[in-house]
Amino acid sequence: MTGISTHVLDITNGRPLAGLQVELYDMATHPPTRLNNTRTNADGRTDAPVLAAKDARTGHFELRFHVGDRFKAADGLSDVVPVRFSIFDAAQHYHVPMLCAPWFFSMYRGS
Amino acid sequence: MANQVVSHPARRQFALSGLALGAAAIASRGALAQQPNAAPAGPARASGPIVLHGVSPRLTVHALDTFHGAAATGLRIDFSRLEGGSYKLLRSTVMNANGRSDDPLLVGESYQAGDYELLLHVDDYFAGRKAVLPVPPFLTKLPVRIRVANVAERIHLPIQFGPWSYTYSRGS
């Protein structure tokens, strides 16, 4: 499989973060173009890939996780978390998960 | 109170002597040129821990390179504030021998509630350290966006990053 997928886990309770708004932007345009606007499901994943295999290509992308809406912590460290990354080989799959809490965010290239 | 000294004199002296060690480490880095992808044999240690407990409200940053196991010395960070829907550059700063900015990003009068962005020039940083990565690398210009909600409390922002991952959190 190619394209982009994600998975969001809430480390404050060790469970998937469901119902989180996730956007994908193409950062090569000015202003960036929104390619997708979706929400995480009960497993913290999106029902369909954030970027479908048929749309896989090289380029500069940004996932935006609207964590402020979900955490509702008055002193939360971040509201919308951007994860900006580049695809250098469209033949590879890009799984970009996030582990988070209101005051902690960790992103990586997964598999 | 606004600009309370962070470290004790003895610690400061230790930090200064650490700078000399840091310079030596940079000088010896030329030896790595033959092995571009090699991480240093031992992590660079420019100084001991710096304690911020009890200082006045401020925003401080600490950037660590988890690929080399070292402070992200030389990393450029563009620091901006959200105004009218876009981020306006306040200053551009380079991480020192300890992986910190020489001065707090915000302190005293400048420590205002709002939305801020730290844009880490991770691509230039790893290119400068001769890390062999895809072109373009997975992480290029890395934005970290944070909100200062309560100016009565300081925020320390440690950021750990490598070529394929990063983590930031509220520290102490």
UniProtKB/TrEMBL annotation, chain B:
Cross-referenced Pfam families: Transthyretin (PF00576)
GO BP of this protein: purine nucleobase metabolic process
Endpoints of the signal sequence: 1-33
InterPro entries for the chain: TAT_signal, Transthyretin/HIU_hydrolase_d, Transthyretin/HIU_hydrolase_sf
A GO term, aspect molecular function: hydroxyisourate hydrolase activity
Keyword Phosphoprotein: no
UniProt domain Transthyretin/hydroxyisourate hydrolase: residue ranges: 59-171
PROSITE patterns reported in the protein's UniProt record: TAT
Keywords: Hydrolase, Signal
EC number: 3.5.2.17
Protein name: 5-hydroxyisourate hydrolase
Protein species of origin: Variovorax paradoxus
Lineage start: Bacteria, Pseudomonadati, Pseudomonadota, Betaproteobacteria, Burkholderiales
